[in-house]
Amino acid sequence: MDPRVYEHAEILVDWSARVERGDDVVLSVGPDAHDLAVAVAEKLGERGATLLATYDSSELTRAYLRAHDGEFAADPDYERALYERADVVLRLGGGRNTSAMADVPGETRSAYRRARTGVREARFATRWVSTAHPTRALAQQAGMAYEEYRDFAYDAICRDWEALADEMAHLKTRLDEGSEVRLLAGETDLTMSIEGRTAVNSAASVAYDSHNLPSGEVFTAPAATEGVVVFDIPMTIQGRPVRDVRLEFDGGDVVDHAAEAGEDVIAEILETDAGARRLGELGVGMNRGIDRYTNNILFDEKMAETVHLALGRAYDACLPDGETGNESAVHVDLLLDTGADSRFEIDGEVVAEDGTFVFEE
Amino acid sequence: MDPRVYEHAEILVDWSARVERGDDVVLSVGPDAHDLAVAVAEKLGERGATLLATYDSSELTRAYLRAHDGEFAADPDYERALYERADVVLRLGGGRNTSAMADVPGETRSAYRRARTGVREARFATRWVSTAHPTRALAQQAGMAYEEYRDFAYDAICRDWEALADEMAHLKTRLDEGSEVRLLAGETDLTMSIEGRTAVNSAASVAYDSHNLPSGEVFTAPAATEGVVVFDIPMTIQGRPVRDVRLEFDGGDVVDHAAEAGEDVIAEILETDAGARRLGELGVGMNRGIDRYTNNILFDEKMAETVHLALGRAYDACLPDGETGNESAVHVDLLLDTGADSRFEIDGEVVAEDGTFVFEE
Q: Do B71 and A48 touch (CB under 8 A)?
């Protein structure tokens, strides 16, 4: 086995999830993530944690959803009980076809997600971490050879996370102290309130309220969004290509939307619930180790010189204690390039220009 | 996909587990059982049941167990809660290497099993069914080509179960009414009490207290075993070959054991706990559709003209209400040929001779 698989497993278990003896761990295994799962299982054994593996296959879910009449049971008790009692959930993404769900109607997927809100909340209440095993399907989605893609992925994952955390702390401080963000880039001119919100220094560890590996972004929960944004980085959402999404906001809500490709996907997402029309996240990619767009949100949103905004659910970590932010069954990230000809301002002060942060100089 | 995969899934869901709308179903998926899992997921969607898939990989378990110090947490709460709330557990066996656990020390496996007795009991309290997807690993273990093996497996699985149930009812009646079984074959001369016990007409459905697909056996829970038995059908137990096991019983307990191969495996099993030295099952294979030995207990023990005895745990279905039979963390089946030169007597009356039942004539 590639020794980087073991390195990946060790970072995931020790740095990211902080697994300790006696932790009850759910390991969610994608069909092609078997090798990583074996390495993680070994690490969990070493740590004296408990292991229960679930099978996360889009092909299974597709078959199930397409056959179902759409009247889904709300928050199945057995699954909720599992996650309510789990300490850690490690999701090892790795399917065989990233478009496996392409022919499941959007309304079926939305109904299924809505019916499982409680299960999802229980999972989010654990020390959960999502990562991905570099598979052939992900290489293909990135337009890369398999060997090339593995190098890319492990360069992004096997990093000095502590050093990156120190660097990102600068932006977190600015966001925590500020009240309004303005983002300018091409047609984009957007203002958002971040008053009273706490930014997350997302350094790929639950110790930083960060739940992705790789990570390398700073994010917060915006409100009262006004203006226009164009997401010029193409993406695949729910297995379908989406390009040049344009959203117009008024009083926090999306009031107009358009897209060069995948407008129906965006429309379906916006229809999920009231929260799906508002932003749940403003994220700033700061991982200069991720050097290209690979059509995978787990990596793309951390790429330096990009900003992403998510429709839907806000993360509790960004909100004052006891306060809930934007609620929704969805959380869908959209990206824009903030390299050349862009400006990121906090309370009228320029924090980044043309892709370079002021504190980087 | 081979249409027999869908037929298998339908028999499993409808005939075997009697899945109904609203049932909470755990689907345990072996790494190479993916295709069957997809077909079962479709069927569960059609029925309006709930689906949670677990990943059952011997390679994961091996990595975990070998790395662990052996002090396992007793009955992890999150896993027990899952099974306590589940209605149905469908186990789709299908690993990539039936010897994947061969280098895990027997005492580690026993300790792990012992620590999880409560989880196992919770699983056995559901409408559970074990089946196997015909994989290349199982074909290899059977010494058969893949295509040939699939024909064999589907011939055993896709049967008229109702007709077989009617045939097996004859033996069940004899066992239910009898008090002592005597088994004669070669060196074997064994007597067992079956007084007050209820035989299971194992017709591959929970409606018959039968939890295997394929099935086709009648079994009960013996007691007070006396005499000698030689298991002349070779087997693979815990990934290791076992051949010509000879057990001597006195007052229900194994008092002497030997084997031509795998004596250490048998010794480890006998050491698990007190119940591992007693019989938990007397089973009579009656499935004439299974026409050869394939080194897989799920199929072998149902083969006509064989009898199997299990060390360890007895099935509650064989016992009077409220009474518990032999208790153990293990249940290990051993087989003997009861074709030529054999006799199966109940209370001194011959029920089968040289492989033919009296009621078959």
A: yes
Q: Which amino acid is residue A207, in one-letter code? A: A
CA distance B251 to A210: 62
| Interchain CB contact of B63 with A (< 8 Å) | yes
Question: Using the beta-carbon criterion (under 8 Å), do B67 and A24 form an inter-chain contact?
Answer: no
Q: Domain containing A63: what range?
A: 3-157
List the Cα angle A21/A27/A33 in 5-degree steps.
130
Over residues B6-61, the pLDDT tens digits come to 999 999 999 999 999 999 999 999 999 999 999 999 999 999 999 999 999 999 99
Is the same domain home to A252 and A191? yes
Q: How many domains are contained in chain B? A: 2
**A64 and chain B: CB distance < 8 Å anywhere?**
yes
User: Are A182 and A251 members of one domain?
Assistant: yes
Q: Are residues A167 and A149 in the same domain?
A: no
B204 vs B128: CA distance, rounded Å:
11
CB atoms under 10 Å from CB of B226, counted, come to 15
CATH number of the structural domain spanning residue A84: 3.40.1830.10
| CB-closest option in A41, A63, A68 to B60 | A41
Helix axes A117-124, A106-115, angle to 10 degrees: 60
Which secondary structure element, helix H or strand E, spans residue A150, and what is its range?
helix A146-157
Domain limit, last residue, from A157, A175, A204: A157
Query: Does residue B189 sit in the same domain as residue B313?
Result: yes
Upstream peptide bond of B134 is cis (omega within 30 degrees of 0):
no
Mean pLDDT, 10 residues at a time, chain B of 361 residues:
96 98 98 97 98 98 98 97 98 91 91 95 97 96 96 95 93 96 97 96 95 96 97 87 96 97 95 95 93 92 95 92 88 94 96 90 60
**C-alpha span between A280 and A257 (Å, rounded):** 17
